[in-house]
């Protein structure tokens, strides 16, 4: 986890060093969310071309997977009813959790369900040999969730998924006339990214801040620094 207060202070110190401007908390929080989302989504694309080697500390792919593992969730989801645009209704619909990002697997009573697409499920259901049962369940992805087969007899599923990071939020308070971070506020939220992302968070936020305060050089320097960070991680 990365301290949002430390990131905010660092960004302000860099911007104010040459009287470049000031980013108010609401603006900073918006940029912080954008920066966190970009870094988080980048884990999945970076993992595809990351190099694997014998050293635990320099194994880039392993390091990325370690960062992702902090967002792995298992949640029991109950069935609901879903009606599509054609008016067809199913009661075997299981909605994704509100913090859902990517699906890993679906299981029922310790039995892992097989994924199928909408065309294949038609053929699977037609054959007595392949027709899904509670001992051999199948699911398809649908709008905002999954549909289970068989469509009866399944009340709950265990959904294993990657969740989204919580939205970062810096909240201020006043102490001795000074505006400081109010970490006890109910909506105060640090970055949920790995501690190693501190520098990239600062750089990304600075690149956005340069646009807001119309300081093109800040944006250019931040963009160049970001490329250095990306290259060093490959």
Order of helix and strand elements from N to C terminus: HHHEEEEEEHEEEEEHH
N→C terminal distance:
22 Å
Summarize the biggest pleated sheet: 5 strands, mixed
Strand content: 15-25%
* Count of DSSP H/I helices: 6
Strand runs, count: 11
Q: If you compute it from the alpha carbons, what radius of gyration comes out, rounded to the nearest whole angstrom?
A: 23 Å
Name the shape in a single word: elongated
Question: Spans of 5+ residues with little confidence (pLDDT < 50)?
Answer: none
Mean of all residue-level pLDDT scores: 84
Number of domains: 2
- What level of helicity do the residues show? 25-40%
The assigned structural class equals alpha+beta
Strand order of the largest sheet: 2-3-8-7-6
Structure report:
By secondary structure, this protein is of the alpha+beta class. It folds into two domains: 4-69 and 165-232, no CATH class; 72-163. 38% of the residues lie in helices and 24% in strands. It contains six helices and eleven strands. A five-stranded mixed β-sheet has the order 2-3-8-7-6, with no helix packed on it. Strand 4 and strand 5 form a beta hairpin. The chain is elongated and about 75 Å long.
Which terms would index this structure?
234 residues; 2 domains; 5-stranded mixed beta sheet; elongated; alpha+beta; 38% helix; 6 helices; 4-stranded antiparallel beta sheet
